[in-house]
């Protein structure tokens, strides 16, 4: 068992008068975030992706095990393989695997089995959950709260990318086993999300949908 070691907290407080304006400014920024399916092929610098992934890496995790791997893909051949694998699963999904109720729930989003954005967007980030890890001696180590930890880190990543001026799409073809092979990931990792990253096309359209108001998503006791 590792010893419990402490260090001074580095906490940057905010003057109370600035707190609410900052919170409202961030809310206004995030309200403009939309899931995008039509991308420009305009390049995005690798450094921007690296910095955003570093933000994701600051997320809290069960026992601080940080059970995530972010595979950042810009290689056209790998993106082509990913599109082929994803569309194969999506064809089965839309052909009946999903069931009518699920397809009805998706109808207002205008989605189908065709995923050209997987090749057009400059970056794909395959997000893997490490179901277990290994210690310095190579012994298997159980990871805790893995889906929750990876979900929080993914939220950090999406917010960071949006704040940097990029659009994203959380794509989740199921099953996603093909990503392990294409990305060269080991058996202890499970692909959870394929995040599409780039600039929207100039004439990009998005579904006319909204978000639930505060009273429908929160309760104050």
Textual characterization of the structure:
There is one protein chain. Helices cover 40% and strands 16% of the residues. The chain has helices at residues 16-31, 46-56, 76-97, 100-106, 117-120, 146-163, 178-183, 214-217, and strands spanning 68-73, 123-130, 132-134, 140-142, 167-171, 189-198. It is globular. The protein has a single domain, classed as NADH Oxidase, CATH 3.40.109. It is of the alpha+beta class and 221 residues long. It is built from 8 helices and 6 strands. Strand 3 (132-134) and strand 4 form a beta hairpin.
Blueprint of the fold:
Elements: H1 16-31, H2 46-56, E1 68-73, H3 76-97, H4 100-106, H5 117-120, E2 123-130, E3 132-134, E4 140-142, H6 146-163, E5 167-171, H7 178-183, E6 189-198, H8 214-217
Antiparallel strand pairs: 1-2, 2-6, 3-4, 5-6
Helix pairs in contact: 2-6
Individual helix count: 8
Number of strands: 6
Mind summarizing the main beta sheet? 4 strands, antiparallel
Strand content: 15-25%
- Kindly report the spatial arrangement of strands forming the biggest sheet: 1-2-6-5
Helix content: 25-40%
In total, how many domains does the architecture comprise? 1
Separation of the first and last Cα atoms: 39 Å
Top CATH class: Alpha Beta
Give the ordered list of helices and strands. HHEHHHEEEHEHEH
CATH topology: NADH Oxidase
Radius of gyration over C-alpha positions, nearest whole angstrom:
19 Å
CATH superfamily membership: NADH Oxidase
User: What do the pLDDT scores average to?
Assistant: 94
What general outline do the C-alpha atoms trace? globular
What is the CATH architecture term? 3-Layer(aba) Sandwich
Low-confidence stretches: none
The secondary-structure class comes to alpha+beta
């Amino acid at each position: 068992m590792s010893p419990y070691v402490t260090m001074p907290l580095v906490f940057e407080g905010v003057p109370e008068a600035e707190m609410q304006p900052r919170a409202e400014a961030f809310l206004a920024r995030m309200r403009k975030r939309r899931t995008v399916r039509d991308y420009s092929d305009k390049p995005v610098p690798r450094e921007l992706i690296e910095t955003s992934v570093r933000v994701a890496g600051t997320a809290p995790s069960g026992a601080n095990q940080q059970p995530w791997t972010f595979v950042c893909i810009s290689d056209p051949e790998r993106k082509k393989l990913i599109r082929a694998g994803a569309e194969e699963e999506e064809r089965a999904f839309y052909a009946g695997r999903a069931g009518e109720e699920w397809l009805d729930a998706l109808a207002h989003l205008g989605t189908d089995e065709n995923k050209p954005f997987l090749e057009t967007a400059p970056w794909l980030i395959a997000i893997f959950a490490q179901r277990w890890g290994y210690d310095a001696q190579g012994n298997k180590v159980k990871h805790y709260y893995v889906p929750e930890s990876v979900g929080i880190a993914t939220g950090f990543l999406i917010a960071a990318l949006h704040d940097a001026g990029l659009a994203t799409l959380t794509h989740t073809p199921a099953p996603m086993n093909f990503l392990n092979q294409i990305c060269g990931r080991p058996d202890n990792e499970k692909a959870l999300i394929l995040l599409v990253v780039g600039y929207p096309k100039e004439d990009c359209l998005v579904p006319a949908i909204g978000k639930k108001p505060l009273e429908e998503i929160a309760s104050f006791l």
